[in-house]
Specification:
Layout lengths: L16 H15 L8 E2 L11 H14 L15 H12 L10 E4 L2 H7 L9 E6 L3 H9 L3 E6 L18 E5 L11 H14 L2 E5 L24 E6 L1 H4 L7 E4 L5 E2 L2 E2 H12 L5 H10 L2 H27 L4 E3 L5 E5 L6 H12 L1 E2 L1 E2 L10 E5 L4 H18 L1
Parallel strand pairs: 1-13, 3-4, 3-5, 5-6, 6-7
Antiparallel strand pairs: 2-8, 7-8, 9-10, 11-12, 12-15, 14-15
Helix pairs in contact: 2-9, 3-9, 10-12
Bound molecules: D-malate.
Length: 399
């Protein structure tokens, strides 16, 4: 007799995309120690601006409270403290979205909740993802052996696939502004997806992790679209918004109007979280609350502007070199066509070896990324400028 394992793990790529990139960088660094300090990282979407002062101050105060018997707190509510849920609720009113505080669940980030939410769904459900795709959506479903189908995107649809009869699925993942393409759905397009989900009884898992980069009249939340409360769950993260990639905090919105087969998804998620999760630390939640204060919002806007300026440096370079790209306007990601018809892993290797710049090969996000490459605007101004100078020289050399 022997323990049975989840065989689906054996069907996954051996390593997660960003772990593979980190491995290639380590190999290159060990073979090229004399230039390894010249490396500029624009691969994984990790931020460089430190936590805002107001967040740090709130966390220090909270840490001090935890050190005094009178103000010490043990287990908190699994779904988050009321003070943070209230801050998130108010934030949504800016987009005209009215939420009940019980519809907001505080988490340690969008990635974990996007994986964990699958506990609520049968393994027989069919899943639709747009391709290119954030690999977490696909891998977490493969772990459960769910059937995944792909809505392909390309230059022809500006990397914004739309519903079609062959895309009927029980669970639909949408990410807008998109990771990795930076493309953003407008209201009309998002309304078509909501309508499509309604017609087919599907649930949309909407990843809003990059909503803070939206400018102009694009939706920040799927709940700005009429009817979305009956078909969608939304995931958001404070990682990119406020530099929480290492601090970890996000939130998930499960409307109390979302029901399937006699089950209320909000109640099911509460049951799941209270059983398997003990909540985000009090100190972190106090830090997160400060993001939504007047002072915090001002500081965050400065950080976002900083990254937007980087994105502009990158898109200006692409314009100058006449390279096709999406993103960079409502997103920290720039999704560009590899010059010289190179495939994305060859481009990755050459850019690393010849320009010491790291990006993310499009192939890592799916078939339609084979000839594309993702750069992030999360570096410093100095490094972004330097990287784009090297990028330009490299591209000119290959022409
Ligand atoms: C990315 O680079 O795609 C993101 O940083 C990944 C993530 O947020 O988990």
């Amino acid at each position: 007799m022997s323990t049975k394992i989840n065989q689906n793990y054996l069907k996954l790529n051996e390593s997660y995309l960003f772990s593979e990139i980190a491995r290639r960088i380590r190999v290159w660094q060990s073979e090229n120690p004399e230039v390894s300090n010249k490396l500029i990282r624009m691969g994984i979407g990790d931020v460089t601006r430190p936590l805002p002062r107001s967040v740090v101050d709130a966390m220090i105060t909270a840490a001090k409270e935890m050190g005094e018997a009178e103000t010490f707190r043990g287990y908190g509510p699994e779904q988050g403290y009321d003070f943070l849920k209230e801050a998130v609720r108010k934030y949504y009113t800016k987009f005209g979205v009215e939420l009940d505080s019980d519809e907001i669940f505080i988490s340690d980030g969008a990635k974990s909740d996007l994986g964990n939410i699958l506990d609520l769904f049968d393994k027989d459900n069919t899943v639709l993802v747009t391709d290119p795709v954030y690999p977490v959506y696909v891998d977490t479903n493969m772990m459960d052996d769910r059937k995944v189908i792909f809505a392909m995107s390309s230059e022809e649809n500006d990397f914004l696939p739309m519903p079609a009869p062959e895309y009927k699925a029980d669970i639909i993942y949408l990410c807008s502004p998109n990771n990795p393409t930076g493309a953003v759905y407008n209201r009309e397009s998002l309304a078509k997806w909501v309508e499509f989900a309604k017609e087919n009884g599907s649930i949309i898992l909407f990843d809003a992790a990059y909503e803070c980069f939206v400018t102009g009249d694009y939706p920040h939340s799927i709940f700005e679209i009429p009817g979305a409360r009956e078909v969608a769950i939304e995931f958001c993260s404070l990682s990119k918004k406020a530099g929480f990639t290492g601090t970890r905090c996000g939130y998930t919105i499960v409307p109390d109007t979302l029901e399937r087969e006699g089950g209320n998804l909000n109640k099911m998620w509460l049951r799941r979280q209270t059983t398997k999760f003990n909540g985000v630390s009090y100190i972190t939640q106090r830090g997160a609350e400060a993001i939504f204060s007047q002072e915090g919002e001002k500081e965050i806007e400065e950080n976002i502007r900083y990254y937007r300026d980087n994105a502009k440096i990158i898109t200006d370079t692409m314009d100058k070199l006449h390279i096709y790209y999406t993103g960079g306007k409502n997103s920290p990601y720039i999704w560009l066509k590899c010059p010289g018809d190179m495939d994305s892993w060859s481009f990755f290797d050459r850019l690393l070896k010849e320009a010491y710049v790291v990006g993310t090969p499009g192939a890592g996000f799916g078939k339609s990324g084979d000839k594309f490459f993702r750069l992030t605007a999360f570096s410093t101004h100095e490094n972004t400028k330097e990287a784009m100078e090297r990028f330009e020289k490299f591209v000119m050399k290959t022409r």
